[in-house]
What does this fold into?
Amino acid sequence: MAKRYYITTPIYYVNAAPHVGTAYTTLAADAFARYHALRGEASWFLTGTDEHGMKLEREARKRGMGPRAFVDEMSARFREVWPILHVRPDDFIRSTEPRHMERVQKYWSRCVARGDIYLGKYTGLYCVSCEDYYTEKDLREGRLCPVHDRPVEMLEEETYFFRLSAYAQRLLDFYERNPGCIRPETRRNEVLAFVREGLRDLSLSRTSFSWGIPVPGDPKHVIYVWFDALFNYLTALEDGPRHEQFWPPDVQLLAKDILRFHAVYWPAFLMSAGMSDAELPRTIFSHGWINMEGKISKTVDESSAARRRRLGTTDPKRIAEILGADILRYFLLREVSFGEDGEFSHVRMIARARADLSETVGNLLHRALPFVTKYFDGKVPYAPRESLTDVDTAVIACAAESAKLAASEWDAYAPHRALEATIDLARAGNRYFDENAPWVLAKNGDTARLATVLYHVFELLRSVSVQLWPAIPERADALRTQLGLDALTPRVDADLWPLPWGGLAAHTAMAPGEPVFPRFDKVSEAALLRDLGVEDDVVERVPAKQKARTQAVEQPSSTDGSPGVIDYDADFSRIDLRLGKVVAAEKVLKADKLLKLTVDLGEPGGPRIIVAGIALSYTAEAMVGRQIVVVANLAPKVLRGITSHGMLLACGPNDALSVVTIERDCPPGTRVK
Ligand code: MSP
It folds into this structure.
């Protein structure tokens, strides 16, 4: 039987509309679900809305509505936005649905039967936005909630308690036996530290409002929203075959704001309801914040809201309308290291899509397709196996390696690295294209070799289309259409991850068309940014984070022509510096300053060509065997008819340059940092 894969997002509060932050978790979950479905697994992806509690009751009243009408309207906004973002949940649960409410009461009764729920009195400081009590020491100065910066309220109520204190040791034992149950490691350590301090019993019901699930047998109490909400992951599967197939979740995604609820309360509730280790969620994965000069959230004060408005819209629907949903998806999944915080910026979003998608993947496709129209009647050219050269087999190996690497990164919840491996493959495809110069083959009438080269380019792009599909399904399918392939449709038990080389059948009709990815030239970029609501001065001063930091240390940038202070995450980490070994070198004809270097960067596709302006300082022979430092992710550039795939580092005057090297031997490809 096929492996099954069950993934969840938090159910979102409906007190405000979806934004880029809530979209982040949901589209990441969608990408993981798609990846696992592509691998032939039976995948189930659940999202939904959290609709009970004092906060929602108050918000509805503020708008002059009853809570039911209010949550209906707001929940619909979540349900509607997901397809626009190419998010395809298998189920969407609302905590106000009978299927949920009835089952929550059932689990409540189980915990009562276990002796874990008892009646008592609670006095405490309550944050309505968190729907949670705080102790004095957790609060910010002025008795403000540490998450929302809002005043907390003193509440006293008769309440049912959950005997959480009795679960501390059982939880610690569970974490110990299941090291992967809270990820990443730093978050796991935080949870361990929290539980080791000891746990207090948890207030589990409210009498101060009525918009919630009544406590069985005592309806003046409603069930605490977190007990109510957490059980959605279980109640949504209902009782029966779906529950049998999918419970427990393989991974539950959320951000650190609600880690404690998921990593402490939730397993304790399940244990109390009678579940064993094997029935508890396998991984709680806490990703970072998406920030835009502070965390993007719906509860922000007026001044930060005004400041943020100048940076452009955070409405995912609007972004999808203007740029296309896949551009947003790609940016968030590629640019942000999953598990760490990331800065949201429209300028960066466009820059990332331009560099990786338009100028790398799209560029390769749209350079290769015209040859097919002109020389092969618009059909996939035939490449006889026996005519393959070493460069062709190297490109085949490179595609296999990339598929393997990307798969292991998707498996490890590192979409940013998976996509990096995929784009590296497209880069290798561009190098292969340049080095085999199809335009020369066409001019010389070498149609057989031309066919082989083009076939390899298209087959490589087929692999890229599959690898991109979890992240950007719509554009990946558009790429496939032009290659003459069907859209991807996952099937249980069929592993569609890049099939062995040769998936593209010769002689099938290709369908060249409009650019698969927008071109984003300067003019269109400016217009798009205006539509996205980004103010002009913001565009000029990007990266905003860089400027903020620069000012903070009172170091005005560039009084002496130096670029000023940069930020590690936002700036430096984007430069891929690698150690390279020069395996061959020759002078570039009719160019005094240029050497053509063949540099091994440990890449499966073989060495790269780098053209370097060092010929006045080094002979070709002197360069062979040297270890050099290369900017490996620089856009390719043609110099004297040769495409250079990177740049080496050197310093000094042009005729006495000194090439940057390292002191001890390191394998080619080692990251320089
Ligand atoms: N209703 C509760 C969850 C109950 S789950 C049993 C809740 N809802 S929420 O609407 O506030 O959503 C919080 C979640 O939304 C975060 O944990 C995270 O998954 C996502 N995010 C909201 N803003 C975000 C960012 N700015 N950045 C990253 N994730 C964001 O809490």
Residues 346-375 form the longest helix (30 residues). The longest strand covers residues 117-127.
